[in-house]
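[agent] plan:
  1. take the single chain provided in the ticket
  2. run structure prediction with default settings
  3. attach structure tokens to the ticket
  4. add a short note for the reviewer (M.T.)
[agent] executing step 1
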Amino acid sequence: MTTTPAPEATVPAPSAPTATAPRAPGTAPARPGPPPRPRPLAVLAATGASTAALLLLVALGTVLHHPLLIPPLAASMALVAASPDLPLSQPRSLIGGQLLSALAGFAVLVVAGPGLWSAAVAGGLALGVMMLARAPHSPAAATAVIVALEAPPFWTFTGLLLASCLLLVAVGLLAARAGRRRYPAYWF
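[agent] step 2 finished; step 3 output follows
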């Protein structure tokens, strides 16, 4: 009977030195603090841009009888105006995430009809679709929920949603210029 030698254990390579200061033994790692205080001009530009964009969306939603779009789009505008560098704020994520989520809501609507159960499935499905498309935008999950609850007309709702998203990106561009910030970090 022949035996094969046991494979040698591999020893992990030593980790590269880090740029952080060493901790004293027995102490917990430092927790990150709150974000730095924004410049007053940036706060003014973000607040003004968000308010203007939302007033425009209310007017548009009222004329077209779709005011329920305001909550998810308000959250979208908050991301664009206050955190323009985040991946969630970029046009790819805002426009793509909102449209894909609406499509997920309409797909659930076709299969299961409107209702709370459908809305829950649509919100979860929207997250998966956005992740697969690399267009994450958390407020867009609420758009899928609205579609599955309200069963709006497809073309009217989708057209309004696209126009609203383009408006938010345009206002984000203006706010970034006024606040001396850069937006977007990337388009697609």
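[agent] step 4 note for reviewer: Confidence is low (pLDDT under 50) at residues 6-18.
[agent] ticket updated
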